Amino acid sequence: xxxxxxxxxxxxxxxxxxxxxxxxxxxxxxxxxxxxxxxxxxxxxxxxxxxxxxxxxxxxxxxxxxxxxxxxxxxxxxxxxxxxxxxxxxxxxxxxxxxxxxxxxxxxxxxxxxxxxxxxxxxxxxxxxxxxxxxxxxxxxxxxxxxxxxxxxxxxxxxxxxxxxxxxxxxxxxxxxxxxxxxxxxxxxxxxxxxxxxxxxxxxxxxxxxxxxxxxxxxxxxxxxxxxxxxxxxxxxxxxxxxxxxxxxxxxxxxxxxxxxxxxxxxxxxxxxxxxxxxxxxxxxxxxxxxxxxxxxxxxxxxxxxxxxxxxxxxxxxxxxxxxxxxxxxxxxxxxxxxxxxxxxxxxxxxxxxxxxxxxxxxxxxxxxxxxxxxxxxxxxxxxxxxxxxxxxxxxxxxxxxxxxxxxxxxxxxxxxxxxxxxxxxxxxxxxxxxxxxxxxxxxxxxxxxxxxxxxxxxxxxxxxxxxxxxxxxxxxxxxxxx
Length: 483
Fold this sequence. Notes:
The chain is 39% helix and 14% strand.
């Protein structure tokens, strides 16, 4: 009995605090109960009383009626449809989905304008995001809730910080239920307790959230600057690829045998034009620069709630790795040679193919086999430069050619080894790498602000709002926080 982790709760507690009549051990997890006790022992509100809009994709009608008009598009159309993977990676331009104007207007109950709180229903249920303003029509994706609040009493930006704080996560994750898949429903979301902080305190939190987002935007703009300069340095003009891809393409039998491909997509003229352009520069193959190394394949039955972090394709973007909610048993799955190491480039080969991210610091974590590890063996190539090229049109087109035609895209490692990388002088690589480093420094500042805000909210919950204000003043005085 000494080793058992037991929570003792009264029958009255089970009856009163249990809209779903749950008696499972997770609902009465000691850490969850402790977090709830802290919130309920002080002035608090119930989220449902402060919500003006709580909606989702299926609020627009039955499955049958939506299916008649709904079509998810890969090609840009009238409205962008936000998905969890976009929110996780904070990337609203690459590998995204669209819907027509007719569909957007039909889905009128789930139009998104920016500033809303988005909560995952399944997948990573309970995980919350603050929707940015994209200055274009946006429709809510499937498997998400969207919340707009009564902003006279509670702000969406504050809720987002709260539900991502140490205590707030436990509050919302306690309401996750089911087995496979785990889920959270509207009733559970409405029942969530929220600390009743003054609107002025919340507005100060929101002002720093806005500041963090402004810095994050500058970070992305810096990265985009590096991308433009790379193509300019190579004299690469994407308009040169605008050739007649509908025309006939003639190939020798020998070339077809060597390529192993007989589908027409592989031989589109634009790919020939790309190779023609690249032939003007010194080039090397990825296999000669950074031979790809596969990671592990533990299977979803190995996923744990704690242990070493496990990153998958949906966690990667060119801007970084998003937080993972999947962990592995360290004793079984940890491999030192495949752990994340500074300057290793992660490169996706399945699903959303051709996304590269250079690891900024060592981390005891593992990645799925869909993320290849590239470790540079050529002293003439800088990691930031190679990552920049891997994320450019130059490599995206080679990925499109090699992995085209599949429903679920898969890029073979032996094909990736043959990918052609143009090489520029080392001093020019250093210039571009410097801009990339500036981008990631700004990103780190933005993330530091958000982490400080979580600390402030946790402290205000643990003690009181005055303690939160005190830490605010301390962080502002030391320059950690600065508007």
